[in-house]
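Ticket #4471: structure output looks truncated?

Reporter: J.K.
Steps to reproduce: submitted the chain below (140 residues) through the standard prediction queue, then opened the result file.
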Amino acid sequence: MNKHQLQEVAKFGAGLVAGDLLALLWFSANDMFPVSFFGMTFSAEVFLPSLIFDIALIILLVHYAWHVGKIPAIREHSYLMLAGVIFAFVAIAHLSHLFVGGNFVILNFSLPLWLSGIGTFAAAYLSYMSFHLAVSRRGR
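Returned output as attached by the reporter:
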């Protein structure tokens, strides 16, 4: 997957997260909490952390999708390495949740085990691609 394809995936992801953010705001404005979705119940306590996470993720995806080619090479390399380290840390956290099991709770939200499987694969792939792009950009 080359840089252009990753940018297009980031644009698509930004749209999905924006849709999630709008749904979250709509649920909150219409007092629809608690909401059950795929067997998980979201209460009003997870509104603020979800809002902050969605906004931060949109900013990161929009920046990656439209500005990666405009960053000087040294800063781009550092950015990709940092993103690779963060994604690797998230993959390791999800992987440990899969092996250890138990409850993984973030601000009163219990992470289901099946979501850790998806999170492990996605974060590991993003980490690999970030390191791969950082190494390929180093020579330029």
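Triage note (M.O.): checked the attachment and the full token line is present. The helical segments are 3-29, 47-67, 73-100, 113-138.
Status: closed, working as intended.
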